[in-house]
Design brief:
By secondary structure, the protein is α/β, with parallel strands linked by helices. Strand 2, helix 2 and strand 3 form a beta-alpha-beta unit. Helix 4 runs parallel beside helix 5. The longest helix has 18 residues. It is globular, with a radius of gyration of 16 Å. The model has no long low-confidence stretch (mean pLDDT about 90).
């Protein structure tokens, strides 16, 4: 279980990029999807250390479960997998609550009742430690396995051990520095920062903008 990572929604660009990076770093990665054939095809393309599964089967036995679905699918997906978490498993929520989910702009976030998508996830999977992370890692950059990323991975959560485990996982991606950004209450800030990066990508006609935090002693 210790080295087993599940990517729920792993056939999308972000999930696929994370899966490829972690598999290359030596982790056993399960690609989860509502469509088993798509999950298996994605795993085949990634190659060694990756396998395709339904979302429920991907989660069962995994040490870290990373949710990389759009906001519109977050609640339904979490409800479908919440009884499959192994004891001690960690949920990493990378959901960005973009306004496009209700027909608005792709670079604006929605205000959710729980405060953030990650806090909404925590409510839906009680007893599972939730870490908000990976919002600002470019799917385009993740998918280019021949080049390191040039950005920080900010994460937040209320469980110190869970944060440490996710920080160690993040730093298996070449070029990534993991930074503890505080409690889960700060997840709304990380989600808004991801929307800002989308806006910058659109304005400057690029696909790989990222964030570096300076002045920290880590």
């Amino acid at each position: 279980m210790q080295n087993l990572i599940a990517i729920v929604g792993g056939t999308g660009a972000e999930g696929r990029g994370l899966a490829a990076r972690f598999a290359k770093a030596g982790a056993e990665v399960r690609i989860g999807s509502r469509n088993l054939e798509k999950a298996q095809e994605t795993a085949r393309r990634i190659g060694e250390n990756a396998s395709g599964h339904s979302n429920v089967d991907a989660v069962a036995g995994a040490a870290i479960v990373i949710l990389t679905v759009p906001l519109s699918a977050q609640v339904e997906t979490l409800k479908s997998i919440r009884t499959s978490f192994a004891p001690g498993a960690i949920l990493v929520d990378a959901t960005v609550p973009l306004e496009i989910a209700i027909g608005g702009r792709v670079s604006r976030t929605l205000t959710l009742w729980d405060g953030s998508a990650a806090q909404q996830a925590a409510r839906l999977v009680p007893g599972v430690p939730v870490v908000a992370a990976f919002h600002a890692l470019s799917a385009e950059a993740l998918g280019d396995l021949d080049h390191p990323l040039d950005c920080d991975a900010l994460l937040c959560g209320d469980n110190a051990e869970a944060k440490t485990a996710v920080m160690k996982l993040a730093e298996t991606i070449p070029g990534v520095r993991a930074i503890d950004a505080g409690t889960l209450d700060n997840a709304r800030l990380l989600e808004s920062a991801a929307a800002l990066l989308i806006s910058l990508n659109l304005r400057h006609k690029v696909k790989e903008s990222g964030m570096r935090i300076t002045g920290l002693r880590t």
